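Same chain as my last thread, 634 residues:
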Amino acid sequence: MTDLGDFGDFDADADADEGSAANATDSSTASAGTDEPSTASSTTDGSSDAFESTPVEPSGDDVGIGALCVSQGLRIAEDGDDTTLQAYITRGNRSSIRIGSYLLAPYPDGETLFCRITGLEYAQQYHADDATEIHARRAMRSDGIDESDYKFVATLEPVAVLYEDRAEPRSADDSSGRSPQEGGELKRRMTDRVPKPQTVIRQADDTEAIKTGLKMPEDGVFLGHLSVGGEKVRTAASPPTIDYRLKDDYEAGDPLVFRHTLIAGGTGSGKTHGAKNILRQYLADERTYPMADGRTVQPAVVQFDPQDEYAQMHDDNPDLDSDFARRLEREGIAYGGVSDTTAFVPKVGSASYAAGHHRAKQVEFTIPFSMVHDNPWLVAGSGLNDNQYGALVSVLLPRFRNQYGEAGTYEEFTTFLDDPALREELDESGRVHEATFDAVRRRVLGFGHVFDQDARPITELVHEFVRPGGLTVVPTYHINDTRATETIVLAVSSLLIDQKLSNDPTYDRIKETPLVLGMDEAHNFLTDADSVQAGKVITKFTEAAKQGRKERLGLFLITQDPQDIHDAVFKQINTTIVLNLGDEDAIKSVNIPSNLESKVPYMEKGQMVVYSPDNSEPVELIGLPTCLTRHGRD
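reply #2:
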């Protein structure tokens, strides 16, 4: 059998001497499959005639990257599964095309179809079976691929139709670069018409067209830059990147900060870095919100911090150089340390707090036992059933308050429960069974290092705790007791929420200040559990989330286990920011579109998916590579 290497020594003249019709046919077939067209033909007398070469490229300059084709159909339907929209991509443009890229296909009357690439495929130009040894060996010995042998087809998903509203002419200072005479405001509507066959498509490289097509607002809170496949989308504008912002005014509904935000990401995904950059925007000097009495007030940010990282926002980032700072200023991004940053440190037993990694002011506080009268579950731990909780709320705490007053301490409460005469009296009267009494007593013990410590009560520090334009950080890293940490975080957050939702608040400072309530490791506090305490917490935070828009209260939750956050709270989240997550259950729980869901496990640090239906289409972003404040420990 002839070795395949003989193909490299093939001699056309020698083969022609055999005069076989079959061999001649095979020779012409082989010639048709080569990269270069044949330019000579053998005659019967052995001589050859040269043919004049014909140019195969059309004259003129190409515009765009390809054209819509109808070989597989050209159809726009209400049901996306019935839509068929494909484009042939020319050879020179194929290397730059990516799944997720945005394209524009114009209609003859000036409107434009804004679409996204959802699939890419090579198809044969000429029908042949290339799954053969000969084709594979030939490919292994060649220097490259002749793109002209193949079709390169992109499958497109229509996103919106872009059109100019002539009734609303552009202002003279419009940033799009077009004059007011060139048309009205660019708007979008649902896809309701099919483009023409052979319509030339081009990559979307106009900032206004992309933002309009994706329903992205022009102004608001900066999150990152639009990207596709981990690469920033580039335009012909300056700067060439496209900034993504969250709506932050009342012109088109409520600011999204008061419709709540969730940041989900695994360890090392950059979620704390990203959270700091977002919170820094809410603390910008110019950021204000109107209140019911007509005042405009800067928001206060209260951040619960289990890893002791957010107090660093007091300090400038030494790695943020002047060139990067100028870029931030051009894009209107706030940066630099927040001078009005205070670490409110909970006093818990003998635990000490070390703060050598930041220069923020520190204030110690304690949780007074008097707060338990409004929130009995704070002292219930997580083990009381409904019957035991009822005994605590309806009998024991009211009787204690009548005997010791509102200022009664935790130590006095435990002494009160140690009274055997009280136990016997309540059992004989049928109000509290002795077994129930004992169960309550066991579960309320163990909080001696949490309540009424040697520090000022948080209820006396409200004016300093909530400051317009100020950042309050509550570090809990120094507390080794998980139950104590939960009690402190839930006590302080409940104080803020209760005052925000109250029609007759005790502390007007809380009620009259826009508030962003940040909670890192939120899954530890808002989990789906069967205990009475968990149920009360979920009910409180769900109500806060529902009324946040009206009361200027925004939840800012950060977690690496989003699947553990209770559904009642999760359903109130409007903006979900997802960084790298490796756990399949966690990815499924964030409820982002499937085309972006598949990217999450492969995203690099700082890459994120933003799903905010009231702000834009679901998009992929890249956050800033440098933290806007100090971040990380030396």
